[in-house]
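ingest -> validate -> predict -> emit
validate: passed (alphabet ok, no gaps, 203 aa)
predict: started
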Amino acid sequence: MFSGIVAAVGRIIASTPRNDGTPTVRLSIDAGRLELGDVSLGDSIACNGVCLTVVDKGEHSFCVDVSPETLSCTVGLSAPGPVNLEKALRLADRLGGHLVAGHVDSVGEVLRFDALGDNRLLEIRAPAALAKYIARKGSITVNGVSLTTNAVDGACFSINLIPHTLAATTLGGLQPGARVNLEIDLIARYVERMLNPDASQER
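emit:
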């Protein structure tokens, strides 16, 4: 589990196919300012909101394996570039954002990224199937960042990004047309399941 409070911006420095006959790729990631001293092999790190397992590490970098399934339903993991990083929560950690599983529900599209003084108005269109889970003043995760929605119109929602978020995450580099990883609030997912226990669920 994660909180959606990004600890550091790292960078994918290499993406190479595994040599074991599977279509899995291995990412080598420069951890940036993320402290890796307490990270062990097998630990989880969220990369752009995707929970991935550390399979190798150095002093300032680590490696993860990414399956074709994960690559097919996320963005930002298939090529070198910046990524938001967060280590898994410990039970004693403060929950500064909201409970985040690191399981991306779908990919959304940025519609607007407008200046509002030092802030930015971010508007995103989510897939129609996610619309019922997105509520005004509710929580949503965008590329691993815990955010609060300001307004919701169907499957479109807007967020106000403050200067700290713009500086401490990759969100400051967004532009209209960009695609982003979305994870809905866990509570909404379980409430729907309890209300509709016989309904089938798909990704």
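DSSP finds three helices and 13 strands in the chain.
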